[in-house]
Structure formats: C-alpha cells, structure tokens
Amino acid sequence: MVYVEILSDSQGLQAERVNIVANISSPAGVGPLKELEGYTAAGAIHDSDERCDAPKCQPETRVAVQDDLYDWILDGDGASESEHPKEIKWVTGPAGCGKTAIMGSLADRCAANGVLGATFFFASWSASRGRRRKTAFVTTIASQLAEYREDLKDAISNAIEKNPSVFKKSLHVQMEILVLAPLREVALQPDRPQLRGAIIIDGVDECEAEQYHIHGGHRAFDPDQLEILQVLHTASSDSSFPFRVLIASRPERVFRNFFDPQNTPTPFAHKLDLHEDYNADADITLFFEVQFNRLRRRYNFSPSWPPPGTIQTLVKNASGQFIYATTVIRLLETAHRDSPEALLKAILATGATLEITSNPLQQLDALYTHILESSPDPLLSVRWIRSSKELNNRSFANAHNVNLLLQTDPESNEAEHLLGNLHSLIRIPPPSDQATTIYDF
C-alpha cells in the first residue's frame, strides 16, 4: 500500500515537496492471500492430493454415526443447548476404529452441502512437516475460510496487510488476527447472510512436538496438542465464531483431561466414543460382504466363496476395529506368494488358535504377526518399517533414498526381498515412483 503526501506553501497550487511513504506488507509482487498460502499445510485439507488414498467409509457403512455428527453440525444438541451453545464436540476411540475415515467422509458430505468451513488432518507419518506439527494449523484454517465467502476473504486479506508479521506469532495471536477479527468484521456488515458450518480437525493426537529440550531430547507432545485445543476453545467461545468444531483423536490423557466437564467452566457437547457408543459389527459385516464380492469377481472364484460362517468369524475377530477388516482385505488383495483362498484359510486358522481374552486387539496383533512372519526376515522387516516411518519426517525421505540408506548392499533389491509380502501393512510405491513417493502406512 503506497501513501502520497503533497506538502505546499501556495494553497495547493504548486507542490513544494512530495513525500512517498511505502508500506509494503508482503514480498514484492505477492498479495496477502498468496503469502498466506505459503504458510499453509495444503496436504492437511480433506480433499488434498496427499489424501487421495486416505480411508473413507464404505458406502452404507457408519451411516448412523455420520448422521449424528452431521445433525449436530446443523442443529447442535437441540433445545438442551438453547441458553449455552456447545460449539465443540470430541470424537474419540482407539486406533483403528475408523475415526479418520468417518471424519473424511463427513467432510465430503459437509462440503457437498455447503457447510464446511475448514478441515485439518494431522498425520505423524506424513513427509509434510505442516501435517505433523502445529505451525501451519491456524494459517491453514484461515486460508480455507478465505475461500468460504468473498467478504471473509477480503477481511482476512486486510488483516494480513495490517499485520505482516502475523505468521511469526503464536497460534493464539494468529487465531485472533486471521480468524476472529475478520469474522467480527463480517458480522457487523448489514444485510449479509449468516455464516454457519463445521470445522473438522482429525488426528490431533498425532501432532508432534515443535520444539526440543536443550539436551536434544524430544519435548513431550502434550503441550502442543493442548495449545491447539485451547486455541479452538478460545475461538468457539467468541460470540462472532459461527462454526461448530469437531475434534477427533485417540483417548490420550491430554484429551481426557481437557474434555473432562469438571476441568472447564464452559461445557462441551457430549463426547462421541466410537468404541462405546456404536456397535460397528453391522458396518464391518457389510464391508466384508462388499469386498468379498469384489474379490470373487476379480479372481473368478466360486459363488460359495468364502465358506459359510467366514464373515461372521472375521467380524467377531475384528472386535469393532475397522483396521482389522481393512488389513484382512489388503492382505488378500496384495499378497504375491499365496492365493487369496490360502491366505484366508491361514487367517482363520490363526484366529482359531487364540485363547479368549478381554483384549479387543488380540486378533489384530495375531494378524499383524502372521503377516510379518511371511517376510524372509521378520525382525529385519520390522526394523525397516520402523526406520521408514521415522525417516518420513525428513525432507529427503522418498522411498528410493530410504532404500539407499537402509539396505546393506547398494546393488541389492533388499526392500522388495524384505517387504514384498507386507503390502497390507506398508504401501510400497512402484519402482518408477520411488524417487518422488514415500513409504506410506
């Protein structure tokens, strides 16, 4: 923005001095919203190319939970919250119960119906630092809100021009400048339709520490995760904030404490526990039926495959964990050494030998063990998988470079030898894509 000041001693007829004051808040040639884009984590948005293979709910599955969440987005908790609206809802459950798939499918539904304000999907395995840490959280939300409505875009753009250093501020300051202040500005404009919708945040428990201890040890993740929760709570408590916020995470201590009604004077919406509040067996049954039909057509198997009772046994083994079901299907789809028929028999036999315990993940553990034991060197394979996941955090971490770093013989094909039978646990890019693609989990 350039201001021109003309000073004159002759009643404005002749300029004695011209002062040009330049107040350029963005890099040369870069507008405020373009600068904002440079500070976002584009891969964290629900429909990004990085999430093209992200899990989504099988059609006609998880319908009840999606409907409940969508109804809450539109209507809240109904009459019970008329005096004290509860704008944040926690969706929780153990790893593998389908939180990310549900949030992704719900985001698509909200977007299709025009009620999606913004999304952010954290992922600890991502090669993108912005998806693993808190730094780009508020800026990514603000960038999406700028696309939500034209008057909000103008307000956010003006806020950046007035506060060019905002990208170096704390999350709380960024939320105030980039989100809350523009929302207040828009709310004051007459004859404007009311803003409404959802902000969906998934995997906050996967947000890593931004800083480290002086002696080099990793700082605990809790402070950064708590800061995100506090920022969202502050925003939702502002009268100008029109969005309902869904936060999905595992039930780690920081989340249990934060959402404990005894620890906050401002009540939250009733939490939704996917493991306790919903019986996923019917959805897992439907998932298996659809996938076995597809495999039967693909391999031209007999209509009697799989044998009677197979699906019921697999659903029981899953214990409500969708990750068990998806891992079984991925194993049948991707294994190279044995046929799907032989693999299915082996899976059922493995589960049948286990003693009944109260551990709902017992069958999943046995399935993972069975898959890992198909590697020529299971222990070394585990080391490769763990190292690959850690190296995904590095800028050089494409599959080709990881192979060069981990293999003992540069001329060998050690990765394929060790991991070739483990495609159901780790997504291995084809050789032609390994220079640009990471190992995915």
Task: Provide structural commentary.
With 441 residues, the chain is an alpha/beta fold. It is 45% helix and 9% strand. It is built from 18 helices and 7 strands. It has helices spanning 32-37, 63-75, 99-112, 129-132, 137-148, 150-162, 171-187, 222-236, 253-258, 274-277, 281-299, 310-318, 322-334, 340-352, 362-372, 378-391, 399-406, 414-419, and strands at 2-7, 17-22, 88-92, 116-121, 197-202, 243-249, 272-273. The protein has a 5-stranded parallel sheet. Strand 5, helix 8 (222-236) and strand 6 form a beta-alpha-beta unit. Helix 5 (137-148) runs parallel beside helix 7 (171-187). The protein is globular, with a radius of gyration of 26 Å. The two termini are 47 Å apart. Mean pLDDT is 83; it is low at 1-26 and 212-219.
Mean pLDDT: 83
Put simply, the count of helices is 18
Structural class: alpha/beta
Query: Total number of β-strand segments?
Result: 7
Strand line-up across the major sheet: 4-5-6-3-7
Main sheet record: 5 strands, parallel
Name the shape in a single word: globular
Q: Report the order of strands and helices.
A: EEHHEHEHHHHEHEHEHHHHHHHHH
Helix content: 40-55%
> What percent of residues are in strands?
5-15%
- What Rg do the Cα atoms give? 26 Å
Runs in which pLDDT lies below 50 for 5 or more consecutive residues are 1-26, 212-219
How widely separated are the two ends? 47 Å
